[in-house]
Write a structure and sequence with these properties.
It contains three helices and five strands. By secondary structure, the chain is an alpha+beta fold. The chain has one domain. The longest helix has 18 residues. The two termini are about 20 Å apart.
Length: about 80
């Protein structure tokens, strides 16, 4: 999972070496998530990343996808992003 150019890629693969400059973009993701929203923390947790990591081995239902969108909107309103 990675953030790149306003999209949270849930199937992104990170480069194997820190020096590699490969793109971390995937094929499945949530578009329109600002960097401020992606990096928003509460209690030491990066909210958008943590929510997805907690569901890593599951298939996201339509309800899950809608809920994630609401989380993103709530953080946008909170941060003014």
């Amino acid at each position: 999972m990675a953030w790149s150019d306003g999209t949270v890629w849930i199937d992104a693969v990170k480069p194997r070496k820190a020096t590699e400059s490969e793109s971390m973009a995937g094929t499945i993701g949530f578009h329109g998530v600002s960097e401020d929203v992606w990096n928003f923390h509460i209690g030491g947790y990066q909210v958008c990343e943590k929510w997805l990591k907690d569901r890593r081995s599951r298939t996201l239902s339509d309800e899950n996808i809608t809920h994630y969108g609401r989380i993103v909107i709530a953080i946008q309103v909170t941060t003014g992003s």
